[in-house]
Amino acid sequence: MEPSIGRIVHYTLTESDAARINKRREDFMAFVKASKEYPSDGYQAHVGNAVRAGDVYPAIIVRVWATSVNLRVILDGTDDFWATSISEGEGERHWSWPPRV
Question: Which pTM does this prediction carry?
């Protein structure tokens, strides 16, 4: 199959991805605790379950390059993750087609 914009694939998180995602979520919760309320000024809420390297999430292809794609990774929470220049393959920092069930 050829990757194309709008297709849903699976993306495997790296240690760096997981650290960045978890940091955003921890920073937001610290902000909420310090201010005692959720912001009402358009502040991006990064809330969701913790992620780990090796976790696999659905992602939408948003841009196709010659040998890679950019992905909007759909996380288990209110936020998402932008993964750029990702090649098809197995393991961390790769995307793959979901299995047919």
Answer: 0.88
